[in-house]
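User: Continuing from earlier, I have the next pair ready.

Assistant: Great, send them over.

User: Here they are, in order.

Assistant: Folding the first of the pair now:
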Amino acid sequence: MRRPPREPRRPTLLAGVLAAATLAATLAATLAATSAMLPAQAFARDGAPGTAGLTDRAADPGDTPTAVRRAPATTVRSAPRSLHVVSVPVPESVRGTRARWRFIGNDQAPVLGERTGRLEGAMRDVLFTVRIPATAPAGVQELGVVRFEAPGRATTDAPVLLDVQVVRRVFVSPAGPMPVVPGGEIATVRFDVHNGGNAPDTLQWRVVPPHDWRLLSTFDRPVVLAAGQRLTVAVRIAVPEEAGITSASVRLQAMRGAEVAAEAEAPLEVTAGVGADQVGPTVTASAVSAPGTQDGLAGWGVRVAGRLTEDITVDAQTSQAQGLTPLGLTAMTRVGFFPMPLNAAVAGPGWRVAGGIAGLTVSELSGIGVTGSGFTAAVDGAGSQVSAVAARPWTGAAGAPGGGLYAARVALPVGGRRWSLAHADLDEAGPTGRQLVATSLGVEMPTRFGGTLETEVGHRRHRLGSGVGASVEWRGGHAGTDVFLRAGRAPGGTAAFARASEDVSASVSRRFASGFELAIGGFRVRDDGPSGGSLRNAGAQLTPRARLGDRTWLGMDLRTTGFAARGPTLGFKDRDVQLGLDVQHQFASGLSFTSQALGSRIRRATILGDGTRFETEAPRGQLRAALGKDADWGTAEATLLVERSGVGSGLPPSQSAVGVRVRDLQPVAAWPSLRVGLDVQRLVVGQSTGGLIARADARMWLAGGFRLQAAIERNPLLAVFGGGTVVGALRLERSFGVPMPTIMQPRSAVYVDANANGRRDPGEAGLAGAVVRAGARRVVADAEGRFRPGAASARDVALDDRSLPPGWSVGAITRDAATGHVRAVAVVPGAGLEVLVEVVAADEGFDRVRDVDDLDVYATDAEGRAWLAVPRGGQRWTFTDLPPGTYTLAIGSERLPEPVILRGPAPVVRLDGRTMPAPLTLRVGPRPVRLLPLAPTGEPSSPPVVPVPRSGAEAQRGRQP
């Protein structure tokens, strides 16, 4: 028996109430989601798509779960801090129906506008806007799904994937106050590194220390920094004792492969010792021995360099060696010892006097290469110059008059030109010595078409005659092009202190934006000898150089030279054509490769007095290659040399050398001051083996400030000096400073002005280690804050605030009323300030503000400088050290997923440096969502204030918000 169909159940009152409540909840959720944005925590950091955590905010509690189809995903590719319009295709199964669609995602998915609606007509796409927060991590994650529902049709979910572009941004800045260390000590320089991008970054540190300073820290392994992570990098460096009193800087480069991602320099102050008064020159004494030779303790040297007074410097040195054999002298050059007579130079503002080794180039026509034993002097001022030399020549035949070198030159600016007058009386004595008596007039002036023109004309009288000489030089350039032209005539030539009797030369070089460089030049020289002979020399050169990629250079050198010499009975002529190739490449691992290939063809002719001519022609090839690496542990290089020479070149038919060289190697970690070097080569000449050449050297700082250098070498080629093929040398030296007189120099002090009243009150202590710049001199305050300003005027005394604790500032400078000398320099300590943030109730439909602890809180002083507070959690921020003054507080919400604004006027606080004020409260709240002009992709927008790198000890120095 068939049952009759049931009639539809009529709605009851309870069902109506439930339906109304469901509709109200849906409308409230939709309104709250209109302006919601997704915080950083809403993104899946593993990048795996999925629907975990998604909430169907419009789901009906009474719905019965059914099978849901999945449509192809729609991917949104964009950068942080951007808006993107999403177009989700409507599935074919519901097109043309009045289906309902709704976006189902996280409670705060960054969707702007409506999240639900109905399909109208032939609607093919659902459009809505997605905002990508600044804190969005890189990678792909599922944002949510768009669900399409229609009566009688299958429910379909269309996933929406968010693909956030990778933004790499690294910041490097100095951390902490400037280190102040004396010479010979170890300094630690700290840097703050911040990964400001949205993805992990792999970095490696490269440290660039000052020249000839030893780096003690090693950074061999890459470091992975997560997005937003900060790291402090400590660099240990040994300051040479001979560095003196100076300022230096250490550069840290954050390397991303071969690319410099970010870099910064940290200052470093070197002093002669904390608490030292005015320090004079440094005296360095050394003793050298050559073990293994008959010389024994063979030499000694002394050098004095530094300041005699505030404005006068001295540099004097001598190296003496008695009874040295050539082998012993060769050994001692391996440790940097070269015998020389006493040579001293004293210089002041605009003048210099030197004695001992006297050298001077008077002018092109009045003498170049003038060298002897005597005195030179020079005075410069306001464009004028006076220079002179008076010396005895080093050459001269035995028994002949000693000769003399006397010359002077005066240059004066007149009418936009620089005029010069020179006179020289030069005689090296002996039949082969150079000789010249000359007077010349010159002018240097700019030209209308650019560049500088120098001309000189003068009369020259030499051993074999006299005549008028002249020279013209022009130097100029424009937009990467440099041009040089020269022509000169100097009777007497090189036998009369000139370049040549006649010479003409020209060169042009050009640098292109693509990295290509081209240089071309040529010359022609004629010189007459004192005995009637003559010399001719000419040549041309073409040198292109190209940059192939970021780390590869390719260069070529094509040149031809000709040489001809003619004497009374014999003459020579040479013609040489050379082609060279040069390749340089820098690998990402730090290895560098250089290679030079040179091929030439030499044509030679010998001409006898009767005209008989003998000619030879021979090729020659040469290949040099080197593979090296420069690292914290030192430098290493492997070299190869191969030469082949034809018959008639006068060289061995073949020779080759293979070697390995290591420099500045630190073999023992416990002895950072010990550095060694090794050099091993195997030389092969012709068919026989030339032998093994090996050399080792070491440098080490010893106790008491002594420095030891040692070298030993095995070289078969040294046998030509006699006495063996193995030599060794030891050099021991010690440097110490000579104090300058401080008579009648008042003592000054750097003190902590605790109450900021501008005067030193009882109980206010001195500040040790503060760096005072007194004119050109640097002084470090002692343990009680005392220092001597020397002869510097009061206006030239300043305190280097980089040596102060973070947040401290320079206060009043007290001077003696009668003499004007600086008596005290006040340092004002910074004060602390605590700030609380209160989130007020929203009135634009928002019910809360997430992640308010990511706010940036600033304090801006009257001069516009800003200090960044340190977040403490729990909506609390702290300024650790603020100098006394008036500050206006401000906030930056760029790191928040939802912008906030201050409610009410910005608070203003006055700090006196004595007491810490009560905590301040900032009232903030959300603002209505507005479509604002976008910043460039991946770039941060401007903060409300511009901070400077002077913040609290725990704040990030120099950080851009």
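And the other member of the pair:
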Amino acid sequence: MSISKFVLLPAIYMLIVLVPLCGQESQYIINNNYHFPGPKDYNEIELYGISLNQSEALPFEDDVINLQAQNSFVLDETRSIDLLLETIARSVDDSQDSEVYFAIASKYFDKRDYSTSKSYWKEIETFDLSLERRAEMQFKLAYCYLVEKDFQTAFGLFQSVENTNNILSPHASYYAGICAFYLGDRDKALVSFKKVENHRKYNNLVPFYLSQIYFKDEDYIEAIKYAQSRISNAGSNKYLLERILGMSYVALEDYNKALPHLENYAASADKLTENDAYQIGIAHYKLGQYSKAQEYFKELSYQESPIGQMSNFLLASTSIEKGEKKNAQSAFKQAGKLDYFLDIKEESNYLYYKVSADLGDERIAINGLSGINSNSIYYSASQQLLSQLLINSTDTENSINVIENIELKSQEINNTYKVLTYENGLQKLKDGDVEIAIRQFEKALNTNSKSIPNSEIQFRLAQSFQAKGDINTSRKWYESYLENDDHEHRFESHYALSYIEMEDQNYSKAIGQLENALENFNIEEDQKNLFDDVLVRLADLELVNNNYASALEYYELAIRNNAEESDYILYQKSMIYGVNNQIIEKLTSLEKLLKHYPKSNYRDDALFQLAETLVQLGKNNQAYQVYNTIIIEFGNASEYSAISYMRQGLISYNQGDLYAALNSYKQGIDICQDKDEKRRALKAVEDIYLYDLNEANDFFKYQESLTGVQIGDIEKDSIVFAIASDVYKNAEYEKAITKFEEYLKSYSHGFYVLDANYYLAESYLVLKSYSKALEYYKKVLKEENGKYYESALKKSAVISYNYAQDFKTSFELYDKLIDMQNTNPSLENLEAALYSAFIIENKNAVLKYGELVSNHSSVSIESKSAAHFYMAKVFYQRKELDSAYNQFERVSRLSKNNQAAESSYYMAKIHFDQNNLQKAEKQAFLTATEGSNYAIWVSKSIMLIADIYVLKKDYLNATAAYESVIENFKENEDILREAKNKLADLEKLIKTESRISDENDLEFIPIDSTSQNK
């Protein structure tokens, strides 16, 4: 068969209309042997689709396959190659194989699949081809080798075609010249190019290569002369000659003449080679035009080549000259990655770390400087800078890790290490991370250095173990500290030891420690409030020992010292005067307390003692009014309210007003928590009803309505409860639990059920069985108006919050408790409610309690900051960004802790979300430098900065930022993964947008010189 026949046939289009015939007409046609066209007929008239369709219905034989292959090839089906190869496999006549391979090779060549095309060209037996087709084959095969940069083989084949009188000869001359050019064969290149210098297709291309030949021979004058002579007629390729002119002038170091040509070339070229961009950058650099030079050096920042390394170094140097340290930092980083110039690599790395230190990027600088080898010429300078950075670092944890990984530590580094571990221990102790604080202090203590006195560390260890609740170990460290000559913390140590002894109920030793504390108090260094507390605690302990005179002395001293607990002291003094029967002095102290401290927590205590003293003096009417003051001011909230009612009842009884007495006793009984007082009141009510009023039935009705049990059961109920109560009062809590549970089992509806449940909860609480305590407190809470309700509510809230950490329950309980406290809720309860609401994501409650906490008159700076932080997070989640920003800003002003660092980051993020990129970048930098001790927010801020750089198309700084996170912040896997993904995306973007061409691409202008021969 002849493939060339059907390939080269002109296209003929025919329209065939098939008209249905009736049965008689069909029979007529059959009888007269009319011919029906078949697949071969359709092929001959170039209806290849119909031919292919009909041939597929025929048996799978050689002729059919040949026909299908021809049709499929013309229709450009993907299966056509396989069909053609099948024809070769079936053919017994090899003379047609070359034509088939020729067709296949041409098809792949036209599709620019030169590798596959070449493999089929090589299958052809050239003697089977005509001279014309042999020249076409050699030309196309040569082009395949040219694309593969096998210039030697390509040159030979092109030269064969060039030397024939063929239509492809001029094209072969052009490409032969290109091959010779790349082979460095100047003479052969000139011969070939000269042949087509005036050819209509190559007259604008050849001058480019000829001028390059002169340039490569370093004959720059000739290159300039030739390029200038041809540039006016170069047409659209003029810019190529501009390139040669510019490069030639650069080689002659005439940068003023070079630049216009190079800039014209750069403006016209779609892509620049590395060398092009570098030489243009160098020309600007030599002329001191740093900004323009940087444009081209930045284009080369990502090239992993000698030019890429040198460009980054020059970019960094010019950035330093211009005061652009951030750009210099990123460029030095890029230059330091590559190994082409080791001296530049070493210098770039050192300068990268140094500039990072200047910019406040501590972690980058510290990690990098610590890795500089002792053989480096920058080792001494790096060690000096490293020591300064470590000692001044706020990122202490990373600095500690860096030092711990240094194998040979100098004494200077050991000194720094001891300071850092000590300071980190202090920070962790302040943050409440006691276990970590202890570990850091122990590291400091075990470091051979005098930079921090060991006595100082011993004192901090004592504090840490005390905070942990390990009082025995704490006592040991305080005592170790006191064995030293250091006096800075002697007062604090004795003071702390006194509380440890009090906790152990060793009161005599506690007094000794308090007295030692007084002796070691330094008014200029120690805290006055602690001194006042020492005085008050000494007085309290002397009072416990019944040493009233000594107690009064200490109380008086505390008052003269304007102690903060003066109201408490006055109350205690009044009690001592009362014991000593100094009634007037007692009244004076109580009245002074009530006058000068009207909002004192001891006001109800003072009022009650005042009333009791007035009764003692026989001034019953005055006493009645004072009792009434307690009832009016405190309602049911004071422990003295119930007994005040009862005292009023007694006064009314003694004055003969029996019904007033009954009313007072009954109101007292309703809220009384003291069983003995309640029994006495019930007995008084009984006596009034039975013996004064002679109304037994009224008493029985009252008793039954009060208890819900028959009068006959009351005595048993009272006795069983009284036994359990006595055990409780003797602090036998485990036994008390058994007794109260027995009572509840026997008297499930008894008079003292509420009391039993409450005391069971209290007993379990003392024994630290918090879940059981909570169980019984919840039973008490079922009676919302019960006398124990507020106490049970508060303790249940504390257990849920601190121990169970059931923040949903703790919020509900604190919410109720605060509602009960109405206009004057305690700060402690507000803070617990706020945190609980934040944890359970009750956004409205967070805003409500956040405002209450932040505006509370007694709030500390830390608590105020936390309240603003929680509110900020809620506003941010609600996308109320302006409100969130205001709250985050308050946090950052009030504190320097983790929440402040997070707030600073979110301030930057809000600017970013609102497209205020300049403000976002500035705030993110602030977070990265000021929050260096909180790695997660530093790394997230650097990521945000990188995202901003990407939007600004500042890819160099963006790359450096993502890489710095990957290299220096490995703590958080999510952030690390995000940084790697973003860096990968950025690298793809850089590659897409880069103007730098692949240096491996051939620098010739390929033209379709074979289309006319198809």
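Worth noting for the second one:
Confidence is low (pLDDT under 50) at residues 1-34, 1009-1014. DSSP finds 55 helices and no strands in the chain.
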